[in-house]
Amino acid sequence: MKKDDIYIGDSIRTQTNSKIKLVFKDDSIVSLGPQSLMQVKVFDYTPEREQRVSTFSVAQGKARAVVGRLFGSDSKFEIETPTAVAGVRGTFFMVWVLSPEITRVFVLEGKVTVRNIKPEVKGEVVVTAGKTTTVQEATTPGAAKKATKEEIQEGKSETQVEGEEESGGKGAGEQKDALSKVKEIHKNSITGQGGHINVQGTETTQEFQDI
């Protein structure tokens, strides 16, 4: 699995005892817990214009995102689920697809804007650090409420790849230093447009460099 190419349009699936961390050229990271399924829908990064458009679709399981850099109003970083869209206004959040009808979003640092994936369902919720919201099929996201320590710890542990340090509570400089160490160890080029990747019984890291 390590050093395999991953393409725009690819799906990444983890099995019961597997996790994966994807490291992107724009310093963002997406980690998947066991029994998760995610597709890379869009990754358009133009560093000279400080612009990024990233969209990932999580059909099931748990995903954790750490966004290393924030850009202007023309940029976006979003995770879609069967019921919700979570868009970054901060740095560190988790998405759990409990079922095709229910998604929960947890924010560890910064802010995330959450709305229903159906455009006709109006309204959005801004979720801040330490809070969570639930999005059900065809309904406006519920009001943000405080997440329990147990919920946050479960999400962290299930999406944390072996050897990865926790990002919560670290400053941006420390996060970037940790990310640089990961990039020095794991080198991979990801381009083009393609199919499906299956991760079984492993913990692994991939780096997106030249989409």
Keywords:
211 residues, mainly beta, 15-stranded mixed sheet
| Count of alpha/pi helices | 2
Distance between the termini: 18 Å
Return Rg in Å: 16 Å
Proportion of residues in helical segments: 10-25%
Largest sheet: 15 strands, mixed
Strand % is over 45%
Structural class: mainly beta
Write down the secondary-structure element order: EEEEEEEEEEEEEHHEE
Q: What is the residue-averaged pLDDT?
A: 79
What is the overall shape? globular
Task: Find the count of extended strands (DSSP E, 2+ residues).
Answer: 15
* Low-confidence segments: 167-197, 205-211
What does this 3D model show about the protein?
By secondary structure, the chain is mostly beta strands. The chain has two helices and 15 strands. The model is unreliable at 167-197 and 205-211 (pLDDT under 50).
